[in-house]
Amino acid sequence: MNSIRIIKLSESQEWSNIITNSVNYDFYHTLAYNVLETEGEPILLVQSLDDAYIALPIIIRDIPESDFKDCTSVYGYAGPISNIAFDQVSKALLDMFHNNVLSFFKQTKIVSCFSRLHPIFENHKMLDGFGKTISLNNTIAIDLNLPIDIQRQKYRKSNKYEINKLKKNNFLVIEATTNEEIDEFIEIYSDTMKRVNASDNYFFTKDYFYSFLKNDSFEAKLLLAKKDDIITAGAIFTVTNKVMQYHLAGTKAEFSKDTPMKLILDEARLLGNTLDLDYLHLGGGVGGSDADSLYKFKAGFSDLNFNYKIWQFISDQEVYDNLVEIKNKDTSGGFFPLYRA
Question: Which residues form the signal peptide (predicted)?
Fold first, then answer.
């Protein structure tokens, strides 16, 4: 049986080759994004059979006060990728991938693994029957294959009105080109996260933003909304494999009622059309329903939904249960892994 390969960040060329030769991948899989991870050690698991392979990026973490480890995925939409279409991956390769991932986990004392999956590429298909794949919520995307006027017709009526009003009131959108503009966006983003009481994992260092925006693995663009030369809002977008992702965004408090982010998203859509992309993926909200304000905001731009799934896998049930018992965690909760709840 072909053994699984473990690619580390130090093997940068090999990591990059595997990702860029894959059919469906996003910036979440790239070396440049994974190297920003601070929670643990990023590795790429690669299972090959003949000329085909499946690759899975994960972050290995120590479990506090134990001799065991677990793993998770980077923030965003990761999961397995392959150099062939997912529906053409052979059962032999899938079985080999599943069996060897389990063997690696047991050898490395990895108790459990959690991964966010990619809603557009539907890579959950390569994990069917291997642990649990759970539908969490829906995400929103603008279909850039539609004619531009049809795309805009799908906007909520109030969005069309407010975008026109922003333009009349001299708001415009530019792409950031200077470090001063990046620094101001970082401040706006951080202030926004504080204002909405975001959790710690939504805060990033200045080095994170610069490494992200100036990386060599994928295209990243910072779009800024300005009024009278004042930056009012900004958002980072990525362009990878025909998909534009809406990544991080913030608005100055004094301009929040003007909602300049709506103009930024409209301009990002037009940019995506110019670049001949398939989708501008806006992502989801907290709950993926109309009761969720973030989801409702994004749904005002499109009626196209994708189903967002996560993967949960326990490789050693006995150790997992012991850890939950030691940590005295409520087993009725939906958090995974429970011992980190």
Answer: none
